[in-house]
């Protein structure tokens, strides 16, 4: 935790939070894997190594990951919050934020997965728009698996 | 999902989010149906048609709806987040935002209802203050009904 | 609920929300009781009287409280949101905000506690940084105790 956070203009603060929210909504738009990938920089990294999974670099790979993931999902709800600024260089167009996600994922098999995670975002401006340069995540609490009713 | 969102001054962004939060707190202030209705424009619309329910227009009707709804509620907790800007015309005083709500409602009969919903807000300035011109909602995941313990 | 909220500069609004988020993250950083205490003003008050518990004044006492509390906690996740401005005097450096917290606490004994609470923050600038002058809380819904699996 960094408190107080580094100085950062209010409009940049809001733009960074917009991208975090856009990510949450994109992963809930099941079937639109290209939409998730578009939020990343072209060479952006989706880093799941701290969960024992892959580190995926580039929009094509990220889109492929979500195409596979979406195939077994019926409905998602990702609530993000606790957006905290760790670094901000508005001139260079780079920033770091952490956020919490409380996520529910209903599988096509009827099972429900509930996750409380902490996201670490490296964000960067690309052609005038903030994109995800790297997204990592860790679990705040063990995931909860609820069998189909 | 609209990313990046349209330009909108930071103070307007914060004012729009204030109204979303005020709505969540108002529906948790059980018994104060007039408080909920006051957040709507005089000709505001509470549109539950996508849930198979009514489309209510005007503060009197909205107040009546909440008087009925509150009668069977003991305690509520509406957590709102993921506030995303879809449209903003600061000059005209109109905006559109979506938001997520994670809501818990404890009935007077001891049952607990848990809802994950997506709100669609049309917001408009009325006499200098942002009010709800229309509020629609859809379910992100099926509601969960928990029997009384 | 105060709607619309009192006027307050956007950068102050963001700074107040930063402190609320920092508090949530600090109580999830189990073992770092000094980190929680540092968010309070030197004479800050952690007021749990509305929960039938103590009213603790000063950083030393607050740190001690959290040292004891953390001793039985394995993992926490505090999601805060619904940050609403009740008062703001940017010149004097004082403000009041309320916020909601959806908190999960996994005990060292494997039990899980889920809380939906409403926080009342009195915030004040101390040596140029916003700190917690007083934090009170009430329950929005009864806490849920989930036995160890």
TrEMBL record, chains A, B, C:
Gene3D superfamilies registered for this protein in UniProt: 3.10.450.50
Domain SnoaL-like: 12-135
Annotated TM spans: none
NCBIfam families in the record: SgcJ/EcaC family oxidoreductase (TIGR02246)
UniProt protein name: Uncharacterized protein (TIGR02246 family)
Native source organism of the sequence: Novosphingobium capsulatum
């Amino acid at each position: 935790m960094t408190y107080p956070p580094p100085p950062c203009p209010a409009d940049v603060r809001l733009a960074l939070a917009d991208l975090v929210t856009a990510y949450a909504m994109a992963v809930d738009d099941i079937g639109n894997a290209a939409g998730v990938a578009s939020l990343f920089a072209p060479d952006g990294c989706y880093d799941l190594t701290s969960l024992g999974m892959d580190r995926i670099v580039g929009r094509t790979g990220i889109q492929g990951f979500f195409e596979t993931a979406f195939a077994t999902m019926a409905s998602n709800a990702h609530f993000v919050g606790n957006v905290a600024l760790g670094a901000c260089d508005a001139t260079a167009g780079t920033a770091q934020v952490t956020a919490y996600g409380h996520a529910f994922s209903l599988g096509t098999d009827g099972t429900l997965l509930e996750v409380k995670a902490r996201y670490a975002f490296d964000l960067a401006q690309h052609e005038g728009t903030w994109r995800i340069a790297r997204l990592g995540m860790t679990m705040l609490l063990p995931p909860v698996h609820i069998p189909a009713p």
